[in-house]
Amino acid sequence: MTREVRIGNRWVGDGHPTYIVAEIGINHSGDLETARRLIDAAVHAGVDAVKLQKRTPELCVPPDQQTQMRDTPWGYITYLEYRHHVEFGREAYAAIDVHCREKEVDWFVSVWDEPSVDFMEAFDPPCYKIPSASLTDESLLRRLRQTGRPLILSTGMSTMEQIERAVALLDRSRLLLTHATSSYPCEPEELNLRAIETLRRKFEVPVGYSGHEVGLIPSAVAVALGACLVERHITLDRALWGSDQAASVEPGGFERLVKYIRVTELALGDGVKRVYDSEVPSLRKLRRVNG
């Protein structure tokens, strides 16, 4: 069966080019100009979309962590204060919307709570991402289904039973899953790329890959194993402060990643064994007996 979902002007799924997403996340550290530079780098690399994250900190930070102190670029502050520093408001997102439209690139967000869905609806996003951390938030899943928009559900740190319950609450005709392992960075032995096919068989929806590894090769391998979407974090410099920076890809690396994915797509072919015209000279020169 054909598995495909329409995101913006693109079909994503079986038989379509891999939809490549540069995850800016919170690597902008609350600075709009940094966000613009990351968008520009992603567009230059040839991605299909950029993604950010939207939270309501008071709802998303567990109560026992809100008063925990943390060393940050803004000083020694509580974790809740830190989350506010890296959260964009309406004015910043309006500027991001304008910038992405000028660059002709899709943009959307991971939403972590219901007020964030209501906030983002004003920007008419082509889809929403449901982060792995929110896979068991049934109220959020129901609110997102109500939007009628395509949904990308990330499956990190989740059991198959938890994924089944989440999928049952959503509209499969507008659903795409992403396989992920939620460690930053993730060691190769825990990437478990064969789970892409497991999810494809089990749920019969398009399945992508959200990678948090160091390096680029596993993301191209994920495409060879059936991933129709690849999402990787992008950063201007992996040495910058922030929890996601070490598992991110710098601009030059993102250019190579896009190239590797496109070469992988070409190299996969259609599976029909044939003699190519380019092989004929070798055939005539090297084969002694024709059968």
Descriptive account of the structure:
The protein is an alpha/beta fold. It has one domain: TIM Barrel (Alpha-Beta Barrel). 38% of the residues lie in helices and 20% in strands. The chain contains twelve helices and twelve strands. The chain has helices at residues 32-45, 57-60, 63-66, 79-85, 90-103, 114-121, 138-146, 160-168, 195-203, 217-224, 251-268, 280-286; strands at 4-7, 10-13, 19-25, 49-54, 69-72, 75-78, 106-111, 128-130, 151-154, 175-179, 207-211, 229-233. The strands form three sheets. An eight-stranded parallel β-sheet has the order 7-4-3-12-11-10-9-8. The protein has a two-stranded antiparallel ribbon with strand order 1-2. Helix 9 links the parallel strand 10 (175-179) and strand 11 (207-211). Helix 1 (32-45) packs parallel to helix 5 and helix 1 runs parallel beside helix 11 (251-268). The radius of gyration is 21 Å and the shape is globular. The model has no long low-confidence stretch (mean pLDDT 96).
Question: Any key phrases for this structure?
Answer:
single chain; 291 residues; alpha/beta; TIM Barrel; 12 helices; 38% helix
Largest sheet: 8 strands, parallel
CATH class, named Alpha Beta
Q: Would you list the SSEs in sequence order as H and E?
A: EEEHEHHEEHHEHEHEHEHEHEHH
Shape: globular
Q: Quick one: CATH superfamily?
A: Aldolase class I
- How large, in whole angstroms, is the Cα Rg? 21 Å
Strand content: 15-25%
**Widest sheet: strand ordering:** 7-4-3-12-11-10-9-8
Our count of domains comes out at 1
Regarding quaternary structure, what we see is: single chain
What structural category characterises the helix and strand content? alpha/beta
Report how far apart the termini are.
Answer: 37 Å
What's the pLDDT, averaged over the residues? 96
CATH topology: TIM Barrel
